[in-house]
Amino acid sequence: MALSMEFGFSIGSCFKAPNPPVLISASPNKINFTLRRRNKRFLLRVSAVSYKEFAESALEETRKRIVLEPSHLQEKYSSMTGLDGKTELQMLAFKSSKIRLLRSMAIENETMQVFDFAGFMEPEYDTPIFCANFFTSTNVNIVVLDLNPLHQLTDQTDYQDKYYNKIMSIYHKYAETFPWGGKLTGESIKFFSPLVMWTRFSSSKEKHKALFSAFLEYYQAWLEMTIQVREEMEPSHVRANCEAQHKYLTWRAQKDPGHGLLKRLVGEAKAKV
């Protein structure tokens, strides 16, 4: 399985990111020093943004209600250095009795940040996939935040009733702050829910504060689903859930810029491990 599929990695399933430079400096002090010399405005826009709080808050919320243990990915891929000797990719990965993988991934350098947070259930549960893909550069923030449906809503209207209709108020709460980011392809739209936040915006403290609030509300809604969901006992339904996750990950690996980014980070050989 490709590394990007194992991670469930993406920097956004419905956009093409600006061409990213090869990545990351490891020391915050070094970043600030370099950026201060180059461009003070640049420092404010990129270095002042940190997605670490997003991951920490989500994990804190989870531990209040669920017993987590480290995933095997935590040991294998928690930190990797890029081919340039400076690039770093950092990941946290956990699992529980119901959650197959709860994973946070962060990529950062002087000119961009990528944050990818995902939650996948064991195949005995049909809960949606939690998806937060955030890309921040000097000029733009690109955000995809969703509870991706495991099964197409056009085929299973009861799935929408079960998981989405009661929480649509979350989407409407943030729709004005984060307007729609543009057209989605027909292939992509089937993997998103009515709850999807797909937006672009310029950096500001107010916007990032609102994004943090939206991220937590979406995550808390997903976390509640994982707690309330009942185990599926019918083997055919379990197989269908497993196949749906595989289809979703295959789509992301084939269509997302994230796989190409991983190849630039760690080389083609490791990206295919």
From TrEMBL:
Superkingdom: Eukaryota
Pfam families: Fe_bilin_red
Entries under InterPro entries matching the protein: Ferredoxin-dep_bilin_Rdtase
Gene Ontology annotations of biological process type: phytochromobilin biosynthetic process
The keyword Transit peptide belongs to this UniProt entry's keyword annotation: no
Keywords: Oxidoreductase
Any GO MF annotation of the entry: phytochromobilin:ferredoxin oxidoreductase activity
Family of this protein: Belongs to the HY2 family.
Name the record gives this protein: Ferredoxin-dependent bilin reductase
Protein source organism: Arabidopsis suecica
Organism lineage: Eukaryota, Viridiplantae, Streptophyta, Embryophyta, Tracheophyta
